[in-house]
Amino acid sequence: MAHVRQQIREAIGTACTGLSTTGARVYQARVYPLATANLPGLAIYTNSETSEEAEVGGASRLLMRLLEVKIDGYSKKTSGLDDELDAICTEVEVALMDNATVQALVANLYISETSISFANEGDRPIGCASMSWNCVYYTEANNPQTSKS
Amino acid sequence: MAVESVDDRANFLGTSDFGLAGTYTPSGGSASTVNGIFDKPSSSIPLDSGELDVDSNTPTFLCETSDVSSAASGDTISISAVGYTVVGVQADGQGMTNLVLELT
């Protein structure tokens, strides 16, 4: 069974697939540049996690883990780029908070920051709305594959 | 003394070699045919937020300044049946102007 972090990332990927603006253009841990055919699209990362003991005990003691999930929404558009980035954020926020699979894996999930940037190079303006999500979940120290949230 | 003569520039931009004819329309003005060198180099563009770069092209049209003497952002040009809006005007002071374009 996969690490709960992977389960969360994949559940988020599934929850964010098929949204009105970004459709099936959802990429997990992508490292290559996005082409026009990949836009508007989402890129999902779980690059940072901290843990602390939630109880004392042996190898199976409970750990509280704080996972930072980054969801970057990209678009390339001549006009209405800011509106489209906000639409992407709206769709992602609704999709995650209403998704039972994601919610079953976590004790708490909330968006902590959104950062939006634009670039005027290229044949059309490009923008990115980068959403940071805090995701709290619990596992036993010796069993990171099973959520105890 | 100028770097190139008018004839040099006309030869350089002529459609028999590397030049293309574009239909240039200044804002509020009428269309005219302008010869120039069209270029569209690829690049990966980074953003301040987000992990990824985005692939794009930066289209430009190099032409004689005298053909686009009042060029400004918002003018339009059609090249090979593709419409562009001028978003930058870069005159070299020696008779040539590079129009920076965006897809319309």
Provide a concise account of the structure shown.
The complex is a heterodimer of chains A (149) and B (104). With 149 residues, chain A is α+β, with helices and mostly antiparallel strands.
Average of pLDDT of chain B = 92
Order of helices and strands of chain A: HEEEHHEE
Helix-strand topology string of chain B:
HEEEEEEEE
Q: Total number of β-strand segments of chain A?
A: 5
Q: Taking Cα atoms only, what radius of gyration of chain A do you get, to the nearest Å? A: 17 Å
Total helical elements of chain A = 3
The N- to C-terminal Cα distance of chain A equals 17 Å
**Oligomer description:** heterodimer
The structural class of chain B is mainly beta
User: How can the largest sheet of chain A be summarized?
Assistant: 5 strands, mixed
**Neighbour order of strands in the largest sheet of chain B:** 1-2-5-8-7-6
Return Rg of chain B in Å. 15 Å
C-alpha termini separation of chain B: 38 Å
Low confidence ranges of chain A: none
- Helix amount of chain A: 10-25%
Layout of SSEs?
The complex is a heterodimer of chains A (149) and B (104).
Chain A lengths: L3 H12 L10 E3 L12 E13 L8 E15 L4 H17 L2 H6 L2 E12 L6 E15 L9
Parallel strand pairs in A: 1-2
Antiparallel strand pairs in A: 2-3, 3-5, 4-5
Chain B lengths: L5 H8 L6 E6 L6 E8 L2 E4 L8 E4 L2 E5 L11 E4 L2 E10 L4 E8 L1
Antiparallel strand pairs in B: 1-2, 1-6, 2-5, 3-4, 5-8, 6-7, 7-8
Descriptive report:
Chain A has 149 residues and is α+β, with helices and mostly antiparallel strands. Helices cover 23% and strands 39% of the residues of chain A. Chain A has three helices and five strands, in the order αβββααββ. Chain A has a five-stranded mixed β-sheet with strand order 1-2-3-5-4, with helices on one face. Chain A is elongated. Chain B has a six-stranded antiparallel barrel with strand order 1-2-5-8-7-6. In chain B, a hairpin with a 4-residue loop joins strand 7 and strand 8. The N and C termini of chain B lie far apart (38 Å). Chain B is mainly β.
